[in-house]
Amino acid sequence: MPRPIRPLTVEQTKFVRMEANGYTSPEIILELWGMKREDDPTEYHNLECKLSRWRRHPDYMAAWKEEISNVSVKLMNKGLRKIINQMDANEPWLANKAANDGVNFARSRVFAEEDRAVTVKIEGMPDLGTPDEG
């Protein structure tokens, strides 16, 4: 009988969140266990293997995507604020670039459905008739 799959632990969830926020394995190991490679190379390697196993947990990807979604919202908010502020810059090239970025961002949100429409035109099809008897 296979082992039951347990949900992510608090420690595993923190690991997933840190990874989704761009932390490296050494940074995660230092944060979770307070260890550097030079402290105990063998134990450090064991911790690296543990992180690798955690990445294969069935709930890892769902938790990672959820955290990435949160991170993306923060990045988008901060980026949009920056673009809006740059639109009023004293440098004409910067204001123009920010305006273009703002228009492109808004256009992709306003006209997203229309941009996704695909029209397929098939040319050169033979005339349909009955099959030859032969």
Would you mind describing this structure in some detail?
The chain has 134 residues and is mainly alpha-helical. The chain has a domain at 1-71. Helix content is 64%, strand content 0%. The chain is built from six helices and no strands. The longest helix has 27 residues, at 60-86. The mean pLDDT is 89.
Chart the SSEs and their pairings:
Layout: H1 10-20, H2 25-33, H3 41-55, H4 60-86, H5 92-110, H6 112-116
Helix pairs in contact: 1-4, 4-5
Mean pLDDT: 89
Number of helices: 6
* Shape designation: flat
SS content category: mainly alpha
Q: Report the sheet with the most strands, covering strand number, pairing sense and barrel closure.
A: none
Give the total of beta strands.
Answer: 0
Low-confidence stretches: none
How is the quaternary structure best described? Answer: single chain
Distance between the termini: 62 Å
**What is the radius of gyration?**
26 Å
What is the helix/strand order? HHHHHH
Into which percentage range does the β-strand content fall?
under 5%
Q: What proportion of the residues is helical, as a percent range? A: 55-70%
